[in-house]
Amino acid sequence: MAIKEIIEGFFIGFSTTVGAVSTYQTLISCGGLFRKKEAVTHEPKKTFAVLVAAHNESAVIAPLIENLKKLDYPREMFDIFVICDNCTDNTADIVRANGAFACERHDTSKRGKGFGIEWMLENLWAMPRQYDAVVMFDADNLVEKNFLRVMNDRLCKGARVIQGYLDTKNPFDSWITLSYAVTYWFTNRMWQLARHNLGLPNTLGGTGLCVESKLLKEMGWGATSLTEDLEFATRCIERGIYPTWAHDTKVYDEKPIDLRASMRQRLRWMQGHYDVAGRYIGPVLKSGFKSMRLGMFDAAFYLFQPMYVLIVTFMSLLFIGRFFELEHVLPLASILPAWLIYSSTAVFYMLPVLALFLEKVPLKAYLGLLLLPFFFLTWLPIFFYAFFTKKNQVWSHTSHTRAIRIEEMQ
């Protein structure tokens, strides 16, 4: 067989896979077009250990503690612990001055948020007071006042791992932060809410999450990669425990303003993603075939996403041109009906607009839709470089400076 025919055969296979996966994701996203508001029906019952991960966060930690102390939940039913992880500034002093527990950790051999959380949990289990659940935030966050009430309600209804709505604290600081914000608004609606509505597992976002203490003690934290949230969520899903979604309470997160800081943050995310995917895709698929649960296959699909983008990009660059007469090959590459491809493509491009409309974002936020193609282009070198450096587990800290208070967000 000629090399040209072999390569064209691979191209047909990849094109078919791309078409099938894109159609699947578009159809799943349609689940986010509707929203059933989940009423809070349980009075405060659960106790919470509120953990805040912090490394040199003196600029932003005080507004968060002030915010947490004013949550609409009985103050005696939750305690605030700030993990002052290898801090070299006065973060711990500020924490104590604001009435929270400053838990200072000094271990330069194990750097990163995942190690800090694991250390904190070990100390937490040894304390006289035990809590029904653990809530995790980052030091730069701000939290809606109903957060613990919503988490209490979900726990009382049987949920064991819950992710709150992730919003952006500074969406209009730069074109970078606006691109982040649009991405999050779209993801919250058309990925997270969609999967929640369809009974599929949700992903964890690293902050604004709640985990039942009993579950943490049963399986351990065990998530010390650069994307500890993805690792822990995947371990839960592998065991048949699906993280769920709380659309009715928000956590605001500060996003990097400049491109360099943004790319450094996203490089860490992708290195961690590749690492976790390489270790867990096999076990998750195995559990999926064993139990025949769609949610596990969906989780494996999420782990595969960066590789999928790399494949699509590589094949596009390699085969665009006249040599292989792509206009002739492409129709043969699809096993899906033409009407389904065209309609799903149209829906795919409309979904971000619908997401922003349904989330009732400010009108000026729609400018971010025009910026998304440029923001996406900045992902491509990250995807490639992260793939070849995925074994790098050196944590890179993102500096935070916006000391905004929750009243300003509302």
Explain this structure:
- There is one protein chain.
- This protein is an alpha/beta fold and 410 residues long.
- 54% of the residues lie in helices and 12% in strands.
- It has a single domain, classed as Alpha-Beta Complex (Spore Coat Polysaccharide Biosynthesis Protein SpsA, Chain A), CATH 3.90.550.10.
- It has 14 helices and 8 strands.
- An 8-stranded mixed beta sheet has the order 3-2-1-4-7-6-8-5, sandwiched between helices.
- The protein is globular, with a radius of gyration of 22 Å.
Topology:
Blueprint: H1 3-29, E1 48-54, H2 61-69, E2 78-85, H3 91-97, E3 101-105, H4 113-125, E4 133-138, E5 142-143, H5 147-156, E6 161-168, H6 175-197, E7 209-212, H7 213-219, H8 228-238, E8 244-253, H9 259-291, H10 294-319, H11 326-333, H12 338-358, H13 367-388, H14 406-409
Parallel strand pairs: 1-2, 1-4, 2-3, 6-8
Antiparallel strand pairs: 4-7, 5-8, 6-7
Helix pairs in contact: 1-10, 1-11, 1-12, 6-12, 6-13, 8-9, 9-10, 9-13, 10-13
A few lines on this structure:
By secondary structure, the chain is of the alpha/beta class. The protein has helices spanning about 5-30, 60-70, 90-95, 115-125, 145-155, 175-195, 215-220, 230-240, 260-290, 295-320, 325-335, 340-360, 365-390, 405-410; strands at about 50-55, 80-85, 100-105, 135-140, 140-145, 160-170, 210, 245-255. The protein has one domain (about 1-35, about 45-410): Spore Coat Polysaccharide Biosynthesis Protein SpsA, Chain A, CATH 3.90.550.10.
